[in-house]
């Protein structure tokens, strides 16, 4: 396909596709999905080889948020029966982080629900960052605390944070339909504050909220302009008890096309498969490794992911390798300085997988009912509520974390 040859050539040169080309990727048919994966896979391997960076989420503060992000199980008025707790102590957070590091994660993403941190919250998270860094040699720390005020990014950087995550989530045009308590411009401002403080910026999106292809392309081109080092791609987990509970719009093939489009637009950025991979990619998850070079190990913020061991086995079986702490995630030109180069690697997302959009994602516990043993396979695109399991282990519980 001429389109794919063109996009590979551009991706290897770090040249963006045109808007029309990005839309054309999303419009390819299911018959062509392996060709799309193969083409975007060439770009992924050119910049990142076969390495997969593992990130581990620690939900420092869960639920009870005053904001109204529609995709989020922690939002104001959410009826989702998620864990709710206030700030973990530094030692508790460090213990949770250590489990992720022992499981192979090189980055820990510290997430807290809320509009944004108070200065006291930043003090508290700074203590937690120092504790984690002292107790886990070589680990990268990304903070994801919502909208930042003046000076807070600098304070987090001084405490040892490597990165800050805040997702754009969706296009500017549709942002007001998803959230009314803050604006798209607020989000852009926080990503810029993180950049300016010397933190590696992490900012991504949530697909599957009812947006159009144009919206998806808009948000990905806006991200390219902001130039984050890492771009988490969440697939909405339609949580019961949230306004988007009925938005089951994604198929595994659609998820692959979205990841491929993101890879073509941001060829040398860390593209991370974030929340919702188990729920929406399902058995096609290994194909997504040919597009993304990063994922979250184990559980998400408020939902459970597949067993950490299953993540590791999937990576090995697909012929990829877990990136070590001695390996640099980003290509040399991004590490060396300049825009979007912030010394090290990328980060996460609040939606579920990660932060910045603390809401949707993440999950697909394979322990729950359904999945295995079902007599008949559900049609593609059908709601898979059987794959959504609220997190009941790890941070905020007495049970061991999944890592
Ligand atoms: S995404 Fe973050 S800010 Fe929005 S409702 Fe969820 S926790 Fe609150």
Description:
- With 403 residues, the chain is of the alpha/beta class.
- It has one domain: Aldolase class I (TIM Barrel).
- It has 14 helices and 10 strands.
- Strands 1, 2, 3, 4, 5, 6, 7, 8, 9 and 10 form a 10-stranded parallel sheet that branches.
- Helix 10 links the parallel strand 7 (230-235) and strand 8 (270-273).
- 57% of the residues are buried.
- The structure holds iron/sulfur cluster.
- Residues 65, 67, 69, 72, 74-75, 113, 115, 146, 350, 357-359 line the site of iron/sulfur cluster (SF4).
- [4Fe-4S] cluster binds at residues 65, 69, 72.
Question: Structural class of the helix and strand makeup?
Answer: alpha/beta
Radius of gyration: 19 Å
Largest beta-sheet characterization: 10 strands, parallel
According to DSSP, the number of beta strands is: 10
Average pLDDT over all residues: 90
Low-pLDDT runs: 337-350, 359-375
Number of helices: 14
Give the SSE string.
HHHEHEHEHEHHEEHEHEHHEHEH
Compute the separation of the termini in Å.
40 Å
Helical content (DSSP H or I, runs of 4+): 25-40%
Give me the CATH fold name.
TIM Barrel
Bound ligands, named by name, code or SMILES: iron/sulfur cluster
What overall form do the CA principal axes indicate?
A: globular
Cofactor: [4Fe-4S] cluster; [2Fe-2S] cluster
GO molecular function, one term: 2 iron, 2 sulfur cluster binding
InterPro entries: Aldolase_TIM (IPR013785), BATS_dom (IPR010722), Biotin_synth/BioAB (IPR002684), Elp3/MiaA/NifB-like_rSAM (IPR006638), rSAM (IPR007197), rSAM_sf (IPR058240)
Protein name: Biotin synthase
């Amino acid at each position: 396909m001429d389109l794919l040859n063109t996009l590979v050539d551009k991706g290897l040169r770090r040249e963006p596709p045109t808007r029309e080309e990005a839309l054309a990727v999303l419009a390819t048919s299911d018959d062509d999905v392996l060709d799309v994966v193969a083409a975007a896979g060439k770009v992924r391997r050119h910049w990142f080889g076969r390495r997969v960076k593992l990130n581990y989420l620690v939900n420092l503060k869960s639920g009870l948020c005053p904001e109204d992000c529609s995709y989020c199980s922690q939002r104001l008025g959410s009826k989702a029966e998620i864990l709710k707790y206030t700030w973990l102590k530094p030692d508790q957070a460090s213990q949770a982080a250590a489990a992720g590091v022992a499981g192979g994660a090189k980055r820990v993403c510290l997430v807290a629900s809320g509009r944004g941190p108070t200065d006291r919250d930043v003090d508290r998270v700074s203590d937690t960052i120092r504790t984690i860094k002292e107790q886990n040699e070589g680990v990268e720390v990304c903070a994801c605390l919502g909208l930042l005020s003046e000076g807070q990014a600098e304070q987090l950087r001084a405490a040892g944070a490597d990165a800050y995550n805040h997702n754009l989530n969706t296009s500017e045009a549709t942002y007001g339909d998803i959230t009314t308590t803050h604006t798209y411009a607020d989000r852009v401002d926080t990503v810029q504050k993180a950049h300016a403080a010397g933190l590696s910026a992490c900012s991504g999106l949530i697909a599957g909220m009812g947006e159009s292809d144009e919206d998806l392309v808009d948000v990905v081109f806006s991200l390219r302009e902001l130039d984050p080092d890492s771009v988490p791609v969440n697939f909405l987990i339609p949580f019961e008890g949230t306004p988007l509970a009925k938005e089951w719009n994604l198929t595994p093939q659609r998820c692959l096309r979205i990841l491929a489009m993101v890879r073509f637009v941001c060829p040398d950025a860390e593209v991370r498969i974030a929340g919702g991979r188990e729920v929406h990619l399902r058995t096609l998850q290994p194909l997504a490794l040919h597009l993304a070079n990063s994922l979250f190990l184990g559980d998400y913020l408020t939902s459970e992911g597949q067993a950490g061991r299953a993540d590791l086995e999937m990576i090995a079986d697909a012929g990829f390798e877990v990136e070590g702490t001695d390996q640099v995630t980003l290509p040399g030109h991004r590490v060396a300085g300049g825009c979007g180069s912030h010394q090290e690697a990328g980060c996460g997302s609040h939606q579920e997988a990660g932060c910045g959009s603390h809401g949707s994602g993440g999950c697909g516990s394979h322990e729950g009912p359904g999945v295995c043993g079902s007599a008949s396979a559900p049609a593609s695109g059908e709601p898979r509520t059987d794959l959504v399991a609220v997190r009941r282990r790890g941070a905020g519980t007495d049970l061991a974390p999944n890592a």
